[in-house]
Amino acid sequence: MGPGRLHFKTAVGTLGYMAPELARTGKANTSTDIYGLGIFMLEVACGRKPIEPQTPPEEAFLADWITGCWDKGDILTTTDKRLEKSFVGQQAELVLKLGLLCSHPVAAARPSMSS
């Protein structure tokens, strides 16, 4: 490796925003960036951090909690209560579902940057 070139072998990122494959391999790519974007979207829509260990176990991981609520038909109950319904339900639902799609645990299931 020539002078002025850097090489890192350790994955750097914030727990909760780091894609599972990035944590395993240490290799970042656009798919791992999309994962972090998805988690950020969920955080903004819900007003919660990606991991909250002080909450009940079924609510500790933001994406898992939202997925569970979606499965029960209650995805809008996850929106930030401070918004006091000052949003269009369909738009909030779209943001939540897009956030979940982007933060899918399987990299191949995430959308590409171009889509």
Automatic annotation (TrEMBL):
- Superkingdom of source: Eukaryota
**Alphabetical UniProt keywords:** ATP-binding, Nucleotide-binding
Where in this chain does the record put each Protein kinase domain? 1-115
Pfam families for the chain: Pkinase
Instruction: Please give the InterPro entries that the UniProt record associates with this protein.
Output: Kinase-like_dom_sf, L-type_Lectin-RKs, Prot_kinase_dom
Q: Which GO terms describe its molecular function?
A: ATP binding; protein kinase activity
Q: PANTHER family attached here?
A: PTHR27007
The protein's name in its UniProt record = Protein kinase domain-containing protein
